Amino acid sequence: MTSHARGFTLVEVLVAVAIVAIALAAGSRAAGTLLDNSQRLSDVTLAQWCAENRLTGMKLAKQFPDVGTNSFECVELGQTYTVTLIVRPSFNPNFRMVDTNVQDSRGQPLTHLSVLMPRY
């Protein structure tokens, strides 16, 4: 009596392992990309808060900004950002155009916000 053992050949097993390895690598890369995008979104949100807080503070103080460039540091949730305010005159002398640029600690630009600031 002869029994024929049935099973997978070594080549079939290696092909299956290769397919699983490629799928896991692709999944790992996708997860890494999602994590990077999540961190970027967090940084941009915090940078937006820095810019908006500064502009809102100027409005609440009824401060009409002088024309020129001003830079300062902003700390939000332990992250330090560099905020640059560029104030330009507008066609109406009762308004100033304020451009706010925010960069992270590495100098990478995160957000840009422009507003028209009225004289109070």
TrEMBL record:
SUPFAM superfamilies: Pili subunits (SSF54523)
Keywords on record: Cell inner membrane, Cell membrane, Membrane, Methylation, Transmembrane, Transmembrane helix
InterPro entries assigned to the protein according to its UniProt record, in alphabetical order: N_methyl_site, Pilin-like, T2SS_GspI_C, T2SS_protein-GspI
Domain Type II secretion system protein GspI C-terminal as annotated: residue spans: 41-116
Membrane topology annotation: Single-pass membrane protein
Subcellular location: Cell inner membrane
Mod. after translation: Cleaved by prepilin peptidase.
Keyword Transmembrane tagged: yes
Presence of keyword Membrane: yes
PANTHER family tied to this protein: TYPE II SECRETION SYSTEM PROTEIN I-RELATED
Similarity section: Belongs to the GSP I family.
Alphabetical list of NCBIfam families matching this protein: gspI, IV_pilin_GFxxxE
Subunit and partners: Type II secretion is composed of four main components: the outer membrane complex, the inner membrane complex, the cytoplasmic secretion ATPase and the periplasm-spanning pseudopilus.
Function: Component of the type II secretion system required for the energy-dependent secretion of extracellular factors such as proteases and toxins from the periplasm.
Name of the protein this chain belongs to: Type II secretion system protein I
Lineage: Bacteria, Pseudomonadati, Pseudomonadota, Betaproteobacteria, Burkholderiales
